[in-house]
Here is the input.
Amino acid sequence: MAKGIKKVCRKGHVFYRSSDCPTCPICEKDRRPSKGFLAILAAPARRALESAGITTLKQLSQWSEKEILELHGMGPSSIPKLRKALSDENRSFRRE
Here is the structure.
C-alpha cells in the first residue's frame, strides 16, 4: 500500500508524497536530461541550478562554490560532480 498523500499533477499522473513537495516524479523523470552536466545531478540539485538560470557550464563558472551551495536544493555531494564537469571543459568555479 502506498504511503503518503495521494496527489495528481497537472498532466494527470497520480503519485504519493509524505511531504508538501508538489513535484511529480513521473514528470521529473520525463524531463531529466540524457546528456550534459545537468544529467549527472539529482533532481533537486538540477532544479536549483535551472531556477537560478544556470543551464551551461559557462554560466556555472560565473558562480562560486559557496553561492551554488546556498541555492535551495543543492547539496554538498553535487559539488564534486560539478567540479569535474567544469574541469573536463577547462573551467572552474569563480573564486571568492
Notes: The longest helix spans residues 78-88.
